[in-house]
Amino acid sequence: MMLEIAKPRLALNLFWRTFALLALLLSGGVLAWQQTFKVLEAEPRALESAQQLAGLVNLSRVALAETDSINRVAVLSTLARSEAVQVRVAEQQDRWQPYDANAFAKQLAAELRMRLGPDTVVARSVNGEPGLWVRFRMGNDSFWLQTSAAPLSVSLPNNAWWLGVALVATALGSALITRLINQPLRELSFAAHRIREGEYDSRLDESTRTSEIREVNMGFNRMARELAKMEEDRTVMLAGISHDLRTPLARLRLETEMSVADEQARQFMAHDIEQLDAIINKFMDYARPSELQLQPLDLTEVVEHEAQGFRNLDQIRIRVLLPMGLKVWADETELARVLLNLFENARRYGHAPGLPTLVEVSHVLQGPWITLQVRDFGPGVPQDKMARLTTPFFRGDAARTAATGAGLGLAIVEKSVQRLGGQLDICNAEDGGLLTSIRLQKAS
């Protein structure tokens, strides 16, 4: 019986997870380097700007100092009309905002105060007018010098395209690196899937340059070869055991029919021999997987065909509640083996004492899946033993094991359902009996 494992809400395969981490790391590196270049550019640019501004202020001081009060007004009027540099008289009621709002501005303001004196004021706006303003003193008077219509700042406007190219290159590089990293793991996953399906021909690359991957591939190929040899030896051994046991069983049956005079004893011995032969068949079914040929099958036809061979009013009554045209992807032989073992299990254990077994076959549609439900109306199975029902050679309580058997029926069912790519679930029905659900992929 397969137990469903809770999946995480957000499930990413290894490729996308590695890609996301690499892209995040490299994109963060690109942005960090851009910020680093921006910070490194701030200091030399601040020094250069402070030197130019200090030179303009000193030139303005000289120009104003060399003129008398009458000509000074004319000089200020001329400078006020200039587009590059404007000089105005600082008034007591002027309202200004400090310039040092960021690292670059603080560095520029500090450099200007060092060059022009501690009483120098650097502002980003005066009386609501934005710009780079420097207030300096000359004698008892104070003046404002404005050199730009907006405050200076450090930015990389011309390199915005470079940032976009860098981020795109980061994404492409992350995808390529992730593919190279995950390719050996993907091949290993495919090889493990093939082995699970019974294909032991593994040819993982043993000449790759990465030593860890090479060692893993070599170990996996060696394991696949050993599993193939074990499977071959087991098949040969079971075939030999089957042949060696069936020959004396056939001889015993012939001798029993010819030499035992008591009719009842003869029937009991023949029944025991038939049971031994059936157990051998169960062993062979469990140990020898057949080649699968998945194809669209009419589920109703397959169920009806298998049920027809079991219907016996004295032992088992099967009611098929399936519509015609219900198709699934399956192998006919493997699906028939599943139904045969389920019906046989129900016939043996799914009935009350002295009464025939009643089996009901129905289905549930679940998107791209069809869940085939096989239910009997017997005593059910104790909950503490439910998880072990598909364990080979395990038998439940005495109520369900009154008949003898190999204990392989449900183990064969689980193995066959897995080979069909389906899912098996076994539980007790709410109003009694055992309910077996087989989920198979729907075929159009």
From TrEMBL:
Residues 240-444 form the Histidine kinase domain. InterPro entries: 2C_sensor_his_kinase, HAMP_dom, HATPase_C_sf, HATPase_dom, His_kinase_dom, HisK_dim/P_dom, HisK_dim/P_sf, RisS_PPD. It catalyses: ATP + protein L-histidine = ADP + protein N-phospho-L-histidine. It is an enzyme of class 2 (transferase). Its main location: membrane. SMART domains: HAMP, HATPase_c, HisKA. CDD domains: HAMP, HisKA. It is a multi-pass membrane protein. GO terms for molecular function: ATP binding. This is histidine kinase. It comes from Roseateles koreensis. The lineage of its organism: Bacteria, Pseudomonadati, Pseudomonadota, Betaproteobacteria, Burkholderiales.
